[in-house]
Design brief:
- Among the domains are: 118 residues, no CATH class; 99 residues, Immunoglobulin-like, CATH 2.60.40.
- The strands form two sheets. The protein has a seven-stranded mixed sheet with strand order 9-8-11-12-13-7-10.
- It contains seven helices and 13 strands.
- The radius of gyration is 42 Å and the shape is elongated.
- It is of the alpha+beta class.
Length: 335
Amino acid sequence: MSRRSWEKVSNPFRKLGGIPAIQLLPGSVQHYNRTGEILFNVWFADNKYHPEWRHLRRLQWWKYTGTEARKVFKQLYGRRHWYQDIELQATPGEDHAVLRVKEAGRWLELPVAVGYSAMSEAEAKRWDRDLAQYNATASNKEEHFDRATSTSHRRWASRRTRGIQKAYEAAQRFMTQREDSMSMDAFRAYASSFRTRFNNMDSTQRSAFASISTRFKLDDFGVYNIDRIMKMPEQQQVLASTTNSELEAFPWVTAYAVLEGENSVITYWGNSTGRGDNMLVARGRMRSLFLVDADGRIARASVEGLNSGNARCDLQWQLMEQPKTIAEVQAVASR
């Protein structure tokens, strides 16, 4: 496993600023005596987060007194592990202590020996003094952290209260007389009941939309259009006019075109004169064209001009009668 891969797994906070990074570094072979004692030192990426440990610099090596063998210790706690917090629980005059390390939110406890019984009288006094300074600094750091957290929380609560007050004052402009007579807390409870109601309404609408079917039955004459994205190859802008055998224009306001090979309808909007309407067409694929005027009359127009590739064309139109049966509707639609 590469350094980058194991570091990604063992130290998920490595990219976040302000998160301490601590390692326990087991000693090499020369640091192990014949009885197989395990020695390690504590390494800080940045010591500013744990100023209490500056008082313990004289104790360079810690002796692990747990049950794990050297190989298992290295796998469980060694170089490929990063810790975010560390704490020493030791009592002056006692040889044994507990080193607590925090890895990804979980505290681990390692029994260690500080070698107190093997110290000289001067070394023992110096260790007691260092340990007292360690405890005092750790206590001061804890008090500072609690005080900073409490201050931050009070500031947040104050900003939140001011925000609620400003929102209430802004809402007063739109309140009814009954709502304006309520206190701020009463109005918030009153508004919360509406929020629940609107949320329930929203979920009901989502359920209704989810049950909509895209299938439908054609039981009357008309144009049914469902918008969707459709690719139109060979697109061309055509300036189209309408005419009949008597050279009359059809003043259409809406037109519907059917393409070859497409189960869809293209909608056009006209200028109500029947002359000089700009239409985007799929050259060579226009199958049918139906025109509707402001009075609801429907005319069928020829599509030869739209398929010709010319920039201008005249569309021959013929007025259609209203179909009276579904068979007539199906016959017109299948043309």
